[in-house]
Each structure stands twice: as structure tokens, then as C-alpha cells.
Design a protein that fits this description.
heterodimer, A: eight-stranded mixed sheet, B: mainly alpha, about 55% helix
Chain lengths: ~230, ~90
């Protein structure tokens, strides 16, 4: 193995410190139902209510696209407006997120601003969000996270892949914690987001009550039955 | 001027896709950038497009853009002083 890929230390033990799940009008943080609206509430109304409930008063929220609003609020609740941001250097925290739709909802809305060659005014404010990485960028700006970040596209959440990628990243790079998960919004404005805060264990596993970081852990939390009702 | 300010509030919300805000949420003197509404240079481009498309006004340079786009009120004042006749001046 090349030298730059040498493990930082022996096998590392990772834990899920916190997780947040948003789906069907419900918001769950660490197994606790934090907020609930009727599942038939449309996404714009739901996210607007959730922003008020979150109380972050972050003015830049209003200019984000819908995917970024979903990711931003899920992360804001996960980290409790930064209170639970890992106590590490900004460069040591990574973000690894995936979804199935990329930024398609925003892409389509941008396309609507350029329908006619004779009346051609591409909208820069919307264009800037026609990549899902911008959602990650919004999190980096909000929490001053300067570590590795990447966005993957897959048909459905691939927790095996995310687990492997994050584990390798924390094993072989300077990263010491990661926000990872799935933030998805489709063209019909069906939404779901699950984000996990992954950190190294600093004490013996017996004393640490946090969940182990395994793909099975993420899958089980993501599939919580009551969130599907 | 009040009518123009009301129109600008609608346009800003529409063109910047600020769907969670209503015209009543926008004070005409509120700074649009940085500490106010949190807009950035990309949004300034969108506002420049609005000025051109709706009022036939093109801005000279970045300094002028900073001055004109400070708030809805400064935009309205600039439009009133410079509106192209073909765009209903």
C-alpha cells in the first residue's frame, strides 16, 4: 500500500453519535420524535414550518433551493445548531452524502427559466444550485466545515458503501469525524433525509453507549417502521 | 414609488425563488446582502437581469451594483431616476 495510504493508527472504532431522520412529515432525532405534521403536507409548507420550529434564524436559508433546505435543516437538527459539532479542527470533519435524484428538482426549475430562445434569461440564483454538492457547501458554510466532502448518486441508500467509504476516510486521511447519510427530493417533492454523525470512540466500548457505526445500524435506523406510517 | 417598491418586492421574491418569504417580510430598507437577507454575488447577477428585463436598465460596474442593490429602496430610487422610456418610464 502506498505510503500516503498508510493507516493513521490501528483499526479505529467508530460510533454513531447522533442521527436525524426526516420523512412523511416526521422528524426524529436519536429515536425521539421531535416534530410531526400531517404526511399530506406539501414539502414547501413542511420545510417552512420545520425552519420555524428549528428556530435557527439563518437568513441564508431563504435563498437555498429545496434540496439544500432539506439537507440544511436535517443537519441543523442533527447538530442542534452547532452545539454538537465535533470538537475537532474544521479540517478534520468530513461530509459524505448521497441521493437518487441529484439536484434534478432544481435542474428542472432552472430549465423553466430558459424555455424560449427569444426571451432568454437564465436565472443565476437557481443555476448555482444545479449540483447536489451545493447542499453540502451550505453545510460547510454554516458550520465552517473544511474537511473532505463528496456527494454520491445511487438508486437507493447504499449504507454498505457509505460505511466503507467513511471508514476508509477516517482510517486513512486526516478526517476524524463525518456527517454522512442520504438526502433526497424527487420531482414530485417526495422527500426523505437521514444523517448520521460518525465519530471515533475515545473510551472503551463498554463505557460508550453510542451505537456502533455499521451499515446494519444505519439501515435499521433508516427503516424505522413508525417513520413509514 | 410605493407601487414600484411593492412590485420590486414581488420580483425579488420571484426571481430569487425566495418562496418562504412574502412581500410583508421584506422591509424596503432591509440590506439585501450579508447581514440582511444574506444574498450574495450570484443573486446580484439575478437582480441585474431583473433590472434589464423589467426596466431596461444596465448597470455599469460592481461599485454601482453594490450601491443600487443595497436595499429594495435604493433599487426603486435608481429605477425611478433611470428607467428606460420603452419600459414604461
Amino acid at each position: 500500500m502506498p505510503e500516503f495510504c498508510s493507516p493513521k493508527k490501528g483499526a479505529i472504532d467508530l460510533a454513531v453519535s447522533r442521527y436525524c431522520l426526516v420523512r412523511n412529515g416526521k422528524v426524529v432525532l436519536n429515536d425521539k420524535l421531535l416534530y410531526e405534521e400531517d404526511r399530506s403536507t406539501d414539502f414547501p409548507s413542511f420545510i417552512r414550518s420545520l425552519y420555524k420550529k428549528d428556530g435557527s434564524d439563518y437568513r441564508k436559508f431563504f435563498k437555498m433551493d429545496r434540496l439544500s433546505k432539506l439537507g440544511f435543516l436535517t443537519a441543523d437538527i442533527l447538530l442542534e445548531k452547532g452545539q454538537h459539532k465535533p470538537d475537532l479542527k474544521d479540517e478534520e470533519i468530513a461530509i459524505v452524502i448521497s441521493n437518487s435524484q441529484s439536484s434534478l428538482e432544481t435542474d428542472a426549475r432552472f430549465l423553466e427559466t430558459i424555455p424560449d430562445k427569444a426571451n432568454y434569461f437564465p436565472n443565476p440564483a437557481l443555476f448555482v444550485y444545479t449540483l447536489p454538492n451545493l447542499m453540502v457547501g451550505e453545510l460547510c458554510i454554516r458550520y465552517r466545515i473544511k474537511g473532505e466532502n463528496i456527494f454520491f448518486i445511487s438508486q437507493k441508500p447504499d449504507f454498505d458503501f457509505l460505511h466503507g467509504y467513511v471508514t476508509n476516510m477516517l482510517q486513512f486521511t486526516a478526517m476524524k469525524a463525518a456527517i454522512t447519510g442520504w438526502v433526497d427530493l424527487d420531482m414530485q417533492l417526495n422527500y426523505e433525509a437521514v444523517l448520521f454523525l460518525v465519530e471515533e470512540r475515545n473510551c472503551s466500548s463498554a463505557d460508550d453507549q453510542r451505537l456502533p457505526f455499521h451499515s446494519k445500524t444505519m439501515e435499521e435506523l433508516y427503516c424505522k417502521q413508525y417513520m413509514r406510517e | 414609488m410605493d407601487k414600484l417598491i411593492a412590485q420590486l418586492k414581488e420580483l425579488v421574491i420571484e426571481e430569487l425563488f425566495l418562496e418562504d418569504l412574502s412581500p410583508d417580510d421584506l422591509d424596503s430598507g432591509l440590506p439585501l446582502f450579508e447581514e440582511g437577507l444574506g444574498l450574495d454575488s450570484i443573486d446580484a447577477l439575478s437582480l441585474a437581469v431583473v433590472l434589464d428585463k423589467e426596466y431596461g436598465i444596465k448597470l455599469e460596474d460592481d461599485d454601482q451594483r453594490v450601491e443600487v442593490f443595497y436595499s429594495i429602496e435604493t433599487m426603486a430610487r435608481h429605477i425611478t431616476e433611470n428607467r428606460n422610456q420603452d419600459h414604461g418610464g
